[in-house]
């Protein structure tokens, strides 16, 4: 079997590729993505070869009607209804009498993936609300092994106000080490750090430096791929567009009487079960969930008339983008050029929930890029950290509430393919002429030598 590395360089676009000398050596083409152009949806489509209408991962967050809760950033592999790449590859290898081992490093849907080797961020949570950062690995002893070789995973560099290069550097080193030691047939590696400053600074980010840093990380993994004779397939999930206008869909819905929040000692909490309509905001896309179908037309008009909104799509229109799945909102909204959707639903910052000022990705009913910025100074954060070390109750208040700070976003489909995702491959002759994300799985199987004999390279 031909070993294969699939390297996911988040935020890399055809327009940015010239700043990456090592990655530029590969044959590369723009890749048509899926909607919404966000991490979980893009990875689900690449891994399954299916649209959201089939795999059901309609964003990084969606409303679970049967639970009455918004859930964000879920890691369970069971969310992928079509068979993902690594399980298909293992099945085909068994049927062909071949051995197969997969290493999946920091791609999503890692919990219960069945991969022989895996690593994913997973904190430990105490009953008193405390949290200790760590990674979840398979086999379990891999976590301690990586820690002894590389130091603790730099969780603060993976997300939050200090997110940046150290996360990609650590992941690249871990992946290269795993590849050289275990020689897996399929390796999946995720390098995230381009994502951070492009959202913080947009066009003002130091693009040559950031892309060169990503290229250095990628080169380390590609060197390991060369050492074990692996082919290389590089993908990205989306490009990041400049923005300057936050659009508060939930505040619009609340002011019109559609959204309800419950006041309490920790601020106002969204009440999705009693709200007639509310939005789960995810970068430049939002799912709007309705309790009563009679509200569909008035809510659609209200949102369509909101400045910064591009499209408001019902189920029939959602089918055009392949997102007509029961997990989607009754309405799906896209932001216009220069705009993005901020999740806040409170009308006065004095009533903001306590989690709003913290890095708290699982409690916020939507995505919050303000977590990439620091509110206040290092002294306050240091004193809070001291309380944690002393075993006292603590709450970090590092997240600003000013959404106008955000200068880059994604989620909408790019008008210019050069500003969208890309596909690059060491085997130039196997690269589709016009690749889409749905080509990643069948192309990977062909590169591994597991596709039925004579199957042509996929193309659209």
Brief summary of the model shown:
Helix 5 runs parallel beside helix 7 (207-227). Strand 14 (261-262) and strand 15 form a beta hairpin. The chain folds into two domains: 4-239 and 413-448, Alkaline Phosphatase, subunit A, CATH 3.40.720.10; 245-406, Gyrase A, domain 2.
Per-chain topology:
Layout: E1 4-9, E2 27-30, H1 39-48, H2 52-55, E3 61-64, E4 69-72, H3 85-95, E5 102-105, E6 117-121, E7 124-125, E8 131-132, E9 135-138, H4 142-150, H5 165-182, E10 186-191, H6 194-201, H7 207-227, E11 231-235, E12 241-242, E13 245-247, H8 249-255, E14 261-262, E15 269-270, E16 277-282, E17 285-290, H9 296-304, E18 309-313, H10 315-318, E19 331-335, E20 339-341, H11 378-389, E21 408-409, E22 422-425, H12 440-448
Helix pairs in contact: 5-7
Which oligomerization state do the chains in this entry correspond to? single chain
Structural shape: globular
Radius of gyration: 22 Å
Classified in CATH, the superfamily of the largest domain is Alkaline Phosphatase, subunit A
* Main sheet record: 8 strands, mixed
Strand proportion: 15-25%
User: Please, what is the average pLDDT?
Assistant: 94
CATH architecture of the largest domain: 3-Layer(aba) Sandwich
Structure description:
- This protein is an alpha/beta fold and 460 residues long.
- It folds into two domains: 4-239 and 413-448, Alkaline Phosphatase, subunit A, CATH 3.40.720.10; 245-406, Domain 2, Phosphonoacetate Hydrolase (Gyrase A, domain 2, 2-Layer Sandwich), CATH 3.30.1360.
- 27% of the residues lie in helices and 19% in strands.
- It contains twelve helices and 22 strands.
- The protein has helices at residues 39-48, 52-55, 85-95, 142-150, 165-182, 194-201, 207-227, 249-255, 296-304, 315-318, 378-389, 440-448, and strands at residues 4-9, 27-30, 61-64, 69-72, 102-105, 117-121, 124-125, 131-132, 135-138, 186-191, 231-235, 241-242, 245-247, 261-262, 269-270, 277-282, 285-290, 309-313, 331-335, 339-341, 408-409, 422-425.
- Strands 2-22-11-1-10-5-6-9 form an eight-stranded mixed beta sheet, sandwiched between helices.
- Strand 7 and strand 8 form a beta hairpin.
- Helix 5 packs parallel to helix 7 (207-227).
- The longest helix is centred in the middle third of the chain and has 21 residues, at 207-227.
- It is globular, with a radius of gyration of 22 Å.
- The two termini are 26 Å apart.
- Mean pLDDT is 94; it is low at 456-460.
